[in-house]
């Protein structure tokens, strides 16, 4: 279902609306990693993560009539903000279904980006039931966070940029480390690289204990995580790989990495001091893999997709403690 | 002495070596400022500040023989790192004269960037005397931090990029707020805008109590600061405007801003949460002016040069406290 043609079409729709993020480097990071480290900071994307790409892609792919009725998403995090802003810039309504115990700042942000927030009680209500009722009543289109071909295509535009940027920097062969939750970004990038830069290979990076994609790659079968929360990398905690994303990842990606919370925090601290960017834990596991797992990587360069920067100030403060 | 032709020539020498920084935006910052806020994050430049531009420009402008003998600079901060990396990438030696009580991390960084660090006792020794003796003995060229035409030309390449980027974003008339110490960046940008985008006007931003350029503009005469230290904006504390930079600033710039420490910290916090970039206090005064002095600015857009991100983790932690 997902293909390079869809990614190329998404790139045309995204042009002028999505930020082309640069490649950042530091000789200090190269020294730690023992090779050149090229970081693509998607934290600098609109709304602070790559999610805006997929949201824009999915919304812009709808026909005018369908799009005009509005969209709906379930998320308390980066996907919510991406959908909210992409909808608002298309001049359409967005309903975001969020748990009532989500941080006030996230709720306020999602509203400020133009979305209507519908709160539900995480203990006693089903967000799917609530969302479906609203969607039916108003004729809204559900924008899934990853298992949706147009979302994968949008995230894949990151891979088109990486292929061009790596070529410009004379990097011909390298691993591309990608923070991985449900696998939308990883599968999209893998598809883009397959056709534009086949000697670049995507590899998923996950939190330890939530390494369902890594284990699924090892066994060849979709594996679940035992827990659904309890890790600072909240942006990339998903129960299992997607039904659409996993077959792509299985066909194209190299082995995964399972990163500890401390490694994620240390990578955030190094991104602060060496790259001057803000990463959230779930957006830093790829950099952590590049810096702290050098023996699991081959080649004289590694590409890192730092996928998001919506860090809580307290968690960021914990990361900074590693510098003193 | 400094001219648009020198800036254009510097841009050619810098091409492929210096990062073209993007323009970042956030609807949340637009809301606070009451107009569009376009941020040029020079914190993402090599070594974490715009200083690398001027250093590269000055070193690359030397004739081969002179350059081959090496360069020297006095600085404990951003200029030191810019000169160290630019020299190392030219394959030449750099001596950086630093006070022995400078932070260990800054000394270590400057060494790690390839420079020879010569320490002096700030109380009992003159860095000029020490530097001059070493320079004479080894035939090194002194790279001044701002009152040097080729350094101004290098910083001015930031202005060339702003002119192009503002045009692409349909911003035809706006103030360009620039963090200002000795005035190298401000004067370089002002010269570039004069010829490439004359309806964009540079305006210097300084810390309160160290607003020598603002007061010099008001009186038309070079004014000194009373103090030389005692402000968290250490990167832009200079005793007075430069002899070369001030006449340019006087001819081309709009009125200056004097920013409080708290305003600088609040701007750092907003850059963290809304732009996902790390700013140091002296690199955030321009953003502070855009956000907190809306009545002193005209037009429906404002451009902010966020000049550096080499923030101490403790100071950054203080900024984050404004978010909780």
Q: Give the chain pair forming the largest contact, with residue counts.
A: A-B, 32 and 32 residues
| Main sheet specs of chain A | 5 strands, parallel
Low-confidence stretches of chain A: none
What is the chains' assembly state? homodimer
Helix fraction bin of chain A: 40-55%
CATH architecture of the largest domain in chain A: 3-Layer(aba) Sandwich
Q: Strand order, biggest sheet of chain A?
A: 1-9-6-7-8
Task: Give your account of this protein's structure.
Two copies of one chain form a homodimer. With 324 residues, chain A is α/β, with parallel strands linked by helices. Chain A folds into two domains: 223 residues, Rossmann fold (3-Layer(aba) Sandwich), CATH 3.40.50.1100; 70 residues, Rossmann fold. In chain A, 47% of the residues lie in helices and 14% in strands. Chain A has 14 helices and nine strands. In chain A, the strands form two sheets. Chain A has a five-stranded parallel beta sheet with strand order 1-9-6-7-8, sandwiched between helices. A four-stranded parallel beta sheet of chain A has the order 4-3-2-5, sandwiched between helices. In chain A, helix 9 crosses helix 11. Chain A is globular and about 55 Å long. The interface between A and B is medium-sized, with 32 and 32 residues.
């Amino acid at each position: 279902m997902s293909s390079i043609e869809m990614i190329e079409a998404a790139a045309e729709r995204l042009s002028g609306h999505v930020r082309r993020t640069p490649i950042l480097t530091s000789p200090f990071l190269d020294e730690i990693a023992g090779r050149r480290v090229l970081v693509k900071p998607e934290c600098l994307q609109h709304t602070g993560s790559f999610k805006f790409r997929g949201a824009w892609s999915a919304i812009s792919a709808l026909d005018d009539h369908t799009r005009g009725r509005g969209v709906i998403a379930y998320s308390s995090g980066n996907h919510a903000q991406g959908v909210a802003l992409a909808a608002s810039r298309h001049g359409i309504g967005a309903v975001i279904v969020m748990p009532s115990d989500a941080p006030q700042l996230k709720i306020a942000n999602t509203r400020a980006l133009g979305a209507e927030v519908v709160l539900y009680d995480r203990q006693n209500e089903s967000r799917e039931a609530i969302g479906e009722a609203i969607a039916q009543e108003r004729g809204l289109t559900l924008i899934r966070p990853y298992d949706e071909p147009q979302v994968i295509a949008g995230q894949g535009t990151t891979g088109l940029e990486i292929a061009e940027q790596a070529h410009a920097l004379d990097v011909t062969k390298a691993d591309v480390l990608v923070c991985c939750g449900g696998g939308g970004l990883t599968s999209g990038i893998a598809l883009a690289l397959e056709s534009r830069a086949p000697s670049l290979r995507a590899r998923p990076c996950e939190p330890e204990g939530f390494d369902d994609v890594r284990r699924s790659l090892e066994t060849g079968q979709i594996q679940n995580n035992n827990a659904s929360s309890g890790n600072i990398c909240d942006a990339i905690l998903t129960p299992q790989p997607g039904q659409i994303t996993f077959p792509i990842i299985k066909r194209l990606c190299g082995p995964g990495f399972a990163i500890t919370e401390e490694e994620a925090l240390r990578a955030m601290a190094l991104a602060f001091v060496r790259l001057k960017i803000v990463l959230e834990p779930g957006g830093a596991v790829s950099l952590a893999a590049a810096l702290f797992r050098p023996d699991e990587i081959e080649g004289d360069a590694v590409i890192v997709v730092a996928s998001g920067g919506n860090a809580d100030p307290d968690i960021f403060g914990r990361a900074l403690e590693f510098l003193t």
